[in-house]
Amino acid sequence: MKALQITAPGKISEVDVPVPEITQPGEVKVRVQAVSIAAPYETNIFHNRLTGRNKCRYPCPPGFPGREGTGIIEAIGENVQALSPGDRVILCSRSGNLYQDIVVCSEPWAKKIETEAKAPDSAPAELFAGLLALLKRAEKIFRALCVVIGLG
Predict the structure, then answer these.
(1) Cβ-count burial of 53 within 10 angstroms (0-12 exposed, 13-18 middle, 19+ buried)?
(2) What is the tens place of the pLDDT at every residue in 103-130?
(3) pLDDT tens-digit profile of 65-75?
(4) β-strand partners of 73
(5) In 3-state terms, what secondary structure has residue 107?
(6) At a CB cut-off of 8 Å and minimum separation 6, what does 46 contact?
(7) What distance in Å separates the CA atoms of residue 131 and residue 11, rounded to the nearest whole number?
(8) What does the alpha-carbon distance between residue 5 and residue 14 come to, in Å, rounded to a whole number?
(9) Gap between the Cα atoms of 15 and 81, Å rounded
(10) Which residues contact residue 4 at a Cβ distance below 8 angstroms, ignoring those fewer than 6 apart?
(11) Is the dihedral of CA 116, 103, 94, 7 positive or negative?
(12) What does the alpha-carbon distance between residue 38 and residue 9 come to, in Å, rounded to a whole number?
């Protein structure tokens, strides 16, 4: 299968990697359809702008970072409760390394979605949901109007 890999600052390659398999109860296998770019985090990785403990070592793992996206469940492991093959899901940040064709993650990091939206339109849904929750908390705490520019 194919994955994108940041091989050096400013350089991306398409590489062949093994198809991941379900190895633990509670895991799901997802065919990735779309991934959102979480700028500035991902652009900082691409341009080697992170410092300290966040500094990247190149080459990065295939598919990294790829934190939010959407896909279709291909297979489920034992004890998976809420998902079935064919379900459309949002892949949350802990599903990880989404710049590849297929990922395996724990069920809690793949949330079923019921929408007619095309895959690219639903890829940043996890970012939007987090932002919405933050705004609701801010309204209760500060009792003020908040302005947000961009999702990342």
Answers:
(1) exposed
(2) 999 999 898 988 676 666 665 665 656 6
(3) 888 888 999 99
(4) 30
(5) helix
(6) 6, 9, 10, 12
(7) 31
(8) 6
(9) 33
(10) 12, 13, 14, 15, 62, 63, 66, 99, 100
(11) negative
(12) 17
Q: Where are the beta strands (DSSP E) in 9-129?
A: 11-16, 27-36, 68-76, 88-91, 102-106, 110-112
For residues 78 and 26, what is the distance between their CA atoms, to the nearest angstrom? 6
Q: By the 8 A CB rule, do 100 and 21 touch?
A: no
Q: Tell me the two tokens of residue 81.
A: 């409760």
- Token digits for 24? 């633990």
What are the tens digits of pLDDT across the range 82-98?
999 999 998 886 667 89
Task: Retrieve residue 117's tokens.
Answer: 């939206």
Preceding amide of 65 cis, omega within 30? yes
Tell me how far CA of residue 38 lies from CA of 35, 61, 102, 103, in angstroms.
Answer: 9, 17, 19, 18
